[in-house]
Amino acid sequence: MKLKALSTAMILATVPMTGAFAAAMDRSGQSIAAFLQPGNYFEAGISVLDADVSGRSTPLAPGLPSQDTGDMASDYYFPAAALKLQLTDNFSFGLLYDQPFGADVDYNTPNLNFTDAFGGTSAEVTTENLTFLFGFQPNQNWNFYAGPVIQTAEGEVSLRGLAYGGPTAFGSYDATMKKDTELGWIAGLAYQIPEIALKASLTYRSEVKHELQATETVNYGQFNLASNPLFTPGKTSVTTPQSVNLDFQTGVMADTVAFANVRWVNWEDFSIRPNYFGQAADARGLVGANLVDYSDDQISATLGVGRKFNEKWAGNVSVGWDSGAGDPVTTLGPTEGYWNVGLGLQFSPATNYFIAGGVKYFMLGDATAKTAAVNNVGTFEDNDAWGYGLKMGYRF
């Protein structure tokens, strides 16, 4: 079965968004598919997520009502771009940009657990990766690659409501963590048989350790926790997780391939514990409490089939599953895994460039929300999300 005419790029190009709404704060899926394209290649794309996540608050004292939280998941988008150069028959270079981890949360519906007269709980976390890949191809089948990763991280959070103890505890807490830039690394290998459109790759990304300078206040910004003489000054340590991606595709008949992706992310060892928040939690008897943490690692998988309809059109269908990162989960991301279904379509006006679009529907898993002090401050059920992606690619 000869499938040379069916470029391995065709199928992956029709799936411009991969993670979008994965466990914990996983977003982009950290694909290196662009680096494994033949010849010289450039692509740029954007993914958009429209999520609807709501629940009911758990009464935290006798006589208090259970209330609707309203939709607390803000819509967000994240761009990605990649450049791959085949320098010689045996050496290649790649430069990949993505935003691997993030959060965007806003509780704006009046609710005793998550809002008060001064506003609602909110959080925004942004990371950016610039990955440098150097590849060695001893023959047409094998590709060994590795390189450094430059990663930035920043975030801000506001806690409001009884879920955080009210204004006399952490219910009036605000933190702004300034952007920090650190180094990580990536390594992997790939094997392909172009004649049957077979390609398999295994990629490891290291954790990245950040030390963020944070401004932390309570009493709605009126008191800087750095002014407390009992607290020790210091930066906030956050280590973004290590991960492994396994990708596979193969031809199954003329102009048709099957593809799969399995991803593992080490969220169990991840936490956010701002310096003064942690000391204040210890002083209140919440020894070792974190602002954000997870109890399990994430495993996700996607299976699909792609087909080339003619010289200009191709498409695919896929099904995805995500394990989540444990339950109960943080109030800043109260879902537990998902199932999704996706459709992708690619149009190639010429052989050297294409435009691809995709859509995915996510059925989000039910979850119980927790805080540093309380393991059940709300239940979130029957939620979903829509993801949309657009990508353009050019071969030169």
Main features:
mainly beta; 14-stranded antiparallel β-barrel; Porin; 396 residues
Write the layout of secondary structure elements.
Elements: H1 8-13, E1 41-52, E2 55-57, E3 76-86, E4 91-98, E5 102-106, E6 115-116, E7 119-120, E8 122-136, E9 142-160, E10 172-193, E11 198-205, E12 208-212, E13 214-218, E14 223-224, E15 236-240, E16 243-253, E17 256-265, E18 271-272, H2 275-283, E19 292-293, E20 298-308, E21 313-322, E22 329-330, E23 338-350, E24 353-364, E25 367-370, E26 378-380, E27 383-395
Parallel strand pairs: 22-25
Antiparallel strand pairs: 1-3, 1-27, 2-26, 3-4, 4-8, 5-8, 6-7, 8-9, 9-10, 10-11, 10-13, 11-16, 12-15, 13-14, 16-17, 17-20, 18-19, 20-21, 21-23, 23-24, 24-27, 25-26
For CATH, the homologous superfamily is named as: Outer membrane protein transport protein (OMPP1/FadL/TodX)
Major sheet: 14 strands, antiparallel, barrel
Count of the domains: 1
Kindly identify the CATH topology.
Answer: Porin
Write down the Rg. 23 Å
Mean residue pLDDT: 92
Instruction: Please estimate the helix content.
Output: under 10%
Head-to-tail CA distance between termini: 28 Å
At CATH level 2, the architecture is Beta Barrel
CATH class: Mainly Beta
Q: Which series of helices and strands comes N to C?
A: HEEEEEEEEEEEEEEEEEEHEEEEEEEEE
Strand order of the largest sheet: 1-3-4-8-9-10-11-16-17-20-21-23-24-27
- Low-pLDDT residue intervals, each spanning 5 or more residues: 1-18
Query: Can you tell me the overall shape?
Result: globular
Structural class category: mainly beta
Discrete helix count = 2
Portion in beta strands: over 45%
